[in-house]
Design the sequence.
């Protein structure tokens, strides 16, 4: 039972019931809710997941669940924000200080670890597809992360000395997003190897050309 529910005093209150009440609410409830939501959203999508399922999987009472998240949309947004904080996304590898700029870019094509047996695509693309209205907060947050992704790649390719970093970055993130989507559809965790090979070719060509030089104006 939830916090403040089923917690009567007297002989009828057993130690087991008290322990269950403590487990279903109290400390760590928010973290358990987010962990349960992450598993369920990955397995069956946001729209296919009910709040009652999340409460049962957490486990928390519905009262506790709604005390932390007033709606499924609010929970879904918090889930995406938690993913960004965890770094366990395609984009997360781009800020890893232990890798060189080139390694960070090529790691985009590795499949992130997942708690599910099936291969999942990019959670931000999935969320935007489930909430197609650009004004929806979930869609807007997904778009924000995709724009952040291309900014990070632009900075990395510029650091490598590529002449047109913005254009190359758009090509690389398009490859990465496309590979993640096909990996999910085909359920092939290593599908990114094809895009990885293409990305290496793009980088090699860009680095061979080197920085672009602007022609001197006529009459200079």
Sequence:
């Amino acid at each position: 039972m939830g916090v403040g529910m089923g917690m009567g005093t007297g002989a009828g209150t057993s130690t087991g019931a008290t322990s269950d009440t403590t487990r279903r609410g109290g400390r760590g409830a928010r973290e358990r809710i987010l962990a349960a939501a992450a598993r369920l959203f990955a397995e069956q999508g946001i729209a296919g997941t009910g709040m009652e399922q999340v409460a049962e999987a957490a486990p928390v009472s519905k009262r506790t669940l709604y005390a932390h998240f007033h709606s499924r949309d609010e929970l879904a947004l918090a889930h995406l924000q938690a993913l960004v904080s965890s770094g366990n996304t395609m984009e997360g590898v781009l800020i890893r200080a232990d890798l060189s700029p080139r390694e960070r870019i090529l790691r985009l094509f590795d499949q992130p670890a997942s708690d599910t047996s099936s291969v999942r695509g990019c959670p931000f693309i999935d969320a935007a597809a489930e909430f197609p209205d650009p004004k929806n907060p979930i869609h807007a947050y997904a778009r924000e992360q995709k724009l952040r992704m291309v900014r990070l790649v632009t900075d990395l390719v510029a650091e490598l000395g590529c002449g047109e970093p913005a254009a190359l970055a758009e090509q690389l993130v398009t490859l990465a997003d496309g590979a993640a989507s096909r990996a999910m559809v085909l359920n092939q965790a290593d599908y990114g190897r094809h895009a990885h090979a293409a990305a290496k070719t793009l980088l090699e060509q860009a680095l061979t050309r080197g920085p672009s030089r602007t022609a001197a104006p006529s009459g200079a």
Observations:
- The chain has a mean pLDDT of 84.
- The first helix runs from residue 15 to 24.
- DSSP finds ten helices and no strands in the chain.
- The radius of gyration is 23 Å.
